[in-house]
Amino acid sequence: MSDWLSFLPFVAIVIAAASTGAVFSPGPWYVALNKPSWTPPDWAFPVVWTLLYAMIAVAGWQVWSRDGFGLALAIWGLNLVLNAAWSWIMFGRQQIKLALMDALGMLLTTAAFIVVAWPISVAAAALFVPYLAWVAAAVVLNYQVWRLNPEPVGADAQGP
User: Is a pLDDT exceeding 80 seen at residue 154?
Assistant: First the structure.
């Protein structure tokens, strides 16, 4: 039972990161953007992210349970910071190019977590594989949205 109590902080941390998606939601600005025809339907995002966030919490807890606070957990935490920042950058600041750079950071830290966590917990590393696939697709989608919606010069410095 006490093992499950140690899981609760990981759930709380992941919920905090996920909450930025609710605070900074797409809204009319994003709806008006040009997007590729293969963009997933709106309903897919909360469904997929709910599953991924559950797996992210379990993976972090698995690594912490076996290794404590080490490199793998540091990467896990950095990944969540980047994850939380993306919605704020993309929807809150409306900076598509900066959001793309953040998404690339998420992709790198997701892959790094898999590599570093593998010797600690194969299960934790495996839980990040679907996340890696989703983030890779998100990077391509973010890139296409940026390409289809050129930002005016100086947009990165101004925001809404």
Answer: no
